[in-house]
Design goal:
This protein is α/β, with parallel strands linked by helices. Among the domains are: about 115-275, NADH-ubiquinone oxidoreductase 51kDa subunit (Rossmann fold), CATH 3.40.50; about 370-444, no CATH class. The chain is about 30% helix and about 20% strand. It has 13 helices and 17 strands. The chain has helices at about 120-130, 145, 170-180, 180-195, 210-220, 240-245, 265-275, 310-315, 370-375, 380-390, 395-400, 410-415, 420-444; strands spanning about 25, 30-35, 45, 55, 60, 70, 75-85, 90-100, 155-160, 200-205, 225-230, 260-265, 285-290, 300-305, 320-325, 335, 350-355. Helix 1 crosses helix 4 (about 180-195), helix 3 (about 170-180) packs parallel to helix 5 and helix 10 crosses helix 13 (about 420-444). The protein is globular, with a radius of gyration of 21 Å. The N and C termini lie far apart (about 50 Å).
Length: about 450
């Protein structure tokens, strides 16, 4: 019997049109825009100036705090500017713009001669930190921080997220098929870094080829197991994946390490392999570009900083019936109003929706059907959280009702027959409540 999490969840149409599309290398653009904040936490601090010459893999911005990450140039060329640039939402964000000139790599990007067994724990974590690796499933939490649990915490399991439950997206699926041995090496490195001897690769059952490939690669590897999972969104959520694979429930407000688990995405694991074994920082990633009307949807390996518009061009250009461009998948992704914004470390996909699927249905009053409650994988009451945010804005009540536990998966909106913008209100309330909590902590 296939495993899964216990509470809530939905099964939207999968629409994995690009599952059979091999990874293509996107040509390097003439110019890249590299944001200084591509991770949760403090933005990185630029250490280059306009006119400087840089090489691919060179550090151009250093971590701005403990929860932060280095930023590297993905190309060689000349720094055109260090100034705010509009992001996908049209907001100005600090960035470094580089004119591409040739393909020269920094001297430190050299393949190691060591075997995995020869690396010390601290050496692995330092390499990950130096490489600026963050969670590539979308959360973008600095990986070296995640692999350094607080005193008193002990990891027992490394759980690899090969679920890719968001509809349409297939970048991780392709990595598992095309970079199998490298992923296994990355898993071994992370296991050594956190001191565990058990790793579980969770993969949904709609990827039988990936399950078979990973199982074949782990048959002679002690301590690494593949766990086929029932297809159920949002199976890729950390807490849901932990429940499905090892049967443990992460308490409200706690991190996975509280139950002895560390979770890493497939893309992140591959980046760890490259960082440690090839000394290659995180300067490129695989992005799914897809949609029903696209001529050439696919999975593209592209440089960080590449304009999204270049990816869309490679997929055949914007179809005439385009109604919306989404960064990510349809459940958790955000609408893009600026397709000249750059690919970032956390860019997993670009979804082009036709007009027929872009418009929201007319909103009606809540009919108290409780479908959103049944669908919530965190056991919350989405209608209540949305109503409090909309009507009273009582932040202390929102905190009491555990709004900070919301993982913003969108199951509530997906199931609402009244077309209410539940997640929009919850995101607003969550942001305000989080700010209140942080202010309260600073005053203590």
């Amino acid at each position: 019997m296939l495993k899964s999490f216990k509470i809530g969840g939905v099964h939207p149409p999968e629409n994995k049109y690009t599952a059979g599309c091999a990874i293509q290398v996107l040509p390097t653009p003439d110019k890249v825009i590299i944001p200084l904040s591509q991770h949760i936490g403090a933005p990185a601090t630029a250490i280059v100036q306009k006119g400087d010459k840089v090489k691919a893999g060179q550090v151009i911005a250093t971590a701005g705090g403990f929860v932060s990450a280095n930023v590297h140039s993905s190309v060689s060329g000349t720094v055109l500017d260090v100034a705010p640039v509009k992001d996908a939402a049209g907001l100005l964000k600090p960035a470094i713009t580089i004119q591409v000139e040739g393909e020269e790599w920094a001297d430190e990007v050299v393949k190691t001669t060591k075997n995995i067994d020869e690396f010390e724990k601290e050496e692995i974590i330092k390499a990950i930190s130096d490489a600026g690796i963050v969670g590539m499933g979308g959360a973008t939490f600095p990986t070296h921080v995640k692999l350094s649990p607080p005193p008193g915490s002990k990891a027992e399991y490394l759980i690899i997220n090969g679920v890719e439950c968001e509809p349409y997206l297939t970048a991780d699926h392709r990595l598992m098929l095309e970079k199998t041995n490298e992923i296994i090496a990355g898993i071994k490195l992370v296991m050594k870094a956190i001191g565990v001897n058990k790793a579980i690769i969770g993969i949904e059952n709609n990827k039988p080829d990936a399950i078979a490939k990973m199982q074949a690669a782990t048959t002679t590897t002690m301590g690494i197991d593949v766990c086929p999972l029932k297809v159920r969104y949002p199976q890729g959520g950390e807490k849901q994946l932990i429940k499905a694979t090892i049967g443990r429930s992460v308490p409200s407000g706690a991190l996975p390490i509280a139950v002895g688990a560390v979770v890493q995405n497939i893309g992140t694991i591959y980046a760890v392999y490259e960082a440690v074994m090839l000394r290659k920082p995180l300067v490129e990633r695989v992005v799914t570009v897809t949609g029903e009307s696209l001529k050439n949807p696919g999975n593209f390996l592209c440089k960080v900083g590449t304009p999204i518009s270049k990816l869309i061009e490679a997929a055949g250009g914007l179809p005439e019936d385009t109604g919306k461009v989404i960064g990510g998948g349809p459940m958790m992704g955000r609408t893009m109003i600026n397709i000249d914004s750059p690919v970032m470390k956390g860019t997993s996909g670009v979804l082009i929706l036709p007009e027929s699927k872009s418009a929201r249905g007319e909103m009606h009053p809540c009919i108290k059907c409780a479908k959103c409650v049944s669908a919530c994988p965190m056991g919350l009451e989405p209608y209540l959280l949305a109503t409090i945010t909309e009507m009273t804005g009582d932040l202390e009540r929102l905190e009491k009702e555990k709004i900070m536990d919301c993982i913003e998966c969108g199951c509530c909106m997906y199931t609402c027959p009244a077309n209410r913008p539940l997640l929009d209100y919850i995101r607003l309330g969550k942001g305000r409540t989080g700010a209140m909590i942080r202010n309260r902590s600073q005053k203590k």
